Amino acid sequence: MELEGDIKTYEWGRCGSESVVAELAAINNKDFVIEPLTPYAELWMGDHESGPSVLKATGDHLGTILTKPLSFLFKVLSVKKALSIQVHPNKELAVRLHRRHPDIYKDDNHKPELAIAITDFTALCGFRPYEEIYAICQGLPPLKLLIGGDEQVETLQNADKEAAKKGLRKCFTKLMTSEQEAISACLDEISTNYVDVLKSHKLFDVFTTVQNDFPGDVGLLSLFFLNLLHLKPGDAIYLGANEIHAYLSGDCIEAMARSDNVIRAGLTPKFKDVSELTACLNYDGLPPSEKFFMPRRINEYIEVFAPPVDDFAIIKVRIPPQTRKYELALKPHSSILLTLHGKSLMRLSGHAEFELSRGTIIYIPPDNAPEIEFLSDVCGTEDLVVYITTFNCYRYKL
Fold it and tell me: Fewer CB atoms inside 10 A, N or C side of the chain?
C-alpha cells in the first residue's frame, strides 16, 4: 500500500531543490527529476479526482481499491510567495456555490483545514482585535480615508462587540470593493510616507515582500486587518468555515475535508469572488494567540490534532531510536501515513511490513489500523517522526 503523491506546480511554490515538496517527491520516486526553475507547491496524498495518489506497486489510482471515498485530503505545501486572501465555505454555502457556479466551485463540500508547520511558516489568519485595527488605521491616514474616514473607523472602538463587528464588516467590505485607482494611490502613499508606521507594527518586511510580488493588489492592504502569525515547526492553525486566511511563506503539512472549494478576493490572478467572501466572513476580532491550534498529548510519543469536524484528524508520532517497539491502535478507518524523519520498520495487522524513511507514504486500510507496530533501529540517531491523517474517530493502545 505504498503511495506516490500527486505534485502540483502552482506558481507560488518554492522552486527546484529548495522545495520540500520536490525533495519528498524525489526521495519517494527515484525517476523523479527536480527541475531547478519549476515551482513545486503541493504534494497531494489521497483519492481526490484533481490529484489522486497512485499505488507504487501497480500504478493504479488509490481510489480503485477503496470501498468508499476518503473523507479527507492530506498535503505537503512549500510556499515561496503569498497564496490568495481566501476563505472556505461551510456546507450550506458550498452547495449553493456549486449549484450556481460549478465551473468555479467544483464540489458541494465544505473545506475546513488544519496546517502544521514543518519549517518556519508565516500566515495571515483571522481579523486582528478591533482596537488594534483602529490604531493601525489612525497611523495610516490614506488607509483610513479609503475605508470611510473617521466616522467609519470610529465604529471599531465601540464597547459593544457586536457593533464593532458590524463596523469591521463595513470597513473591510469598503476596502475590498474600492476602485483600483484609489487602492493604488493608497498603497503608493503608504510605501512612500509611512515606512516608520509599518516598522512600528512589524509589517515593513512582509509589506515590502508582498508588494513586490503583487504590486497594486488590494490584498496587500489586508495586512492591516489580519493577524500575522509566525509559526515554528510543530505549531498548528485550524481554519474552519468562513475564517479568512492566506499562507505567506514556509513549509507545512495540511489536512482538510475532501474538497477543493476556495473563495478568493486578493493576491491572486485567479477569479475573485469579493461579494461572496465579504458576505460570509467571520468578523470576530481576536488576538493571534487564539489562532494557534493546540494538540492533545496522549503519551510521550503521541500528539493528536483533532479539529471540531468529523472529516479528519492528524496524529503525530515521534519515537526515539532507543525505543525498540511501539504499538499504535486506530479505529478501523482508512488512514494515510507520511514519514518526515528517521527510519523504522512498520508492521500492520495481517503481517504486512514496510520500511519507513523520509518521504515514505503509506495507505493504511481499515482492517490493518487496529494493530500498528513501529520497530526502531537502535543504531539510529534520529527520532522517527510520522504524521497520520485519518477520520476523526480514534483510540490508542497505550
Answer: C
